[in-house]
């Protein structure tokens, strides 16, 4: 059987797409952000739990909301944003964060607090 240039190109394109998907899908499922040593002591609180704490500042966390057009799960996205905020809060001298906004385009703001 004779293979034309177009058929060969289509075959190579299918292989390339398969390789990309096999590589990207596991990446979109993993946690890209690890908690740093300064972030390990930072807790995620509600605003009510932070009432007796001193506000240190604001952490603005940002990550990818989608990978190659695939939306990331809301729970995974929230976890990653919280990890980023914990790391930033630890670097600021805080030991607690409180979400201050909803997630929008892979971004979320957190209040940073120092609690007793």
Summarize the structure.
The protein has 116 residues and is α+β, with helices and mostly antiparallel strands. The protein contains two helices and six strands.
Could you explain how this protein is built, in words?
The protein has 116 residues and is of the alpha+beta class. It has a single domain (31-114), classed as Hypothetical protein apc22750. Chain B (Translation Initiation Factor IF3, 2-Layer Sandwich), CATH 3.30.110.70. 38% of the residues lie in helices and 23% in strands. It has helices at 5-29, 74-92, and strands at 43-44, 54-62, 66-67, 70-71, 96-99, 107-114. The longest helix has 25 residues, at 5-29. It is elongated, with a radius of gyration of 21 Å. The protein starts with a helix and ends with a strand. 22% of the residues are buried.
Descriptors for this entry?
4-stranded mixed β-sheet; alpha+beta; single chain; Translation Initiation Factor IF3; 2 helices; 116 residues
Task: Assign the structural class, choosing from mainly alpha, mainly beta, alpha/beta, alpha+beta, or little secondary structure.
Answer: alpha+beta
CATH architecture: 2-Layer Sandwich
DSSP E strands, number: 6
Please state how the strands of the largest beta sheet are arranged side by side: 1-5-6-2
CATH uppermost class: Alpha Beta
**Which blocks of ≥5 consecutive residues have pLDDT under 50?**
21-30
Summarize the amount of helix as a percent range.
Answer: 25-40%
- Anisotropy-based shape: elongated
Instruction: Note the run of SSEs as H and E.
Output: HEEEEHEE
CATH-derived topology: Translation Initiation Factor IF3
Largest sheet: 4 strands, mixed
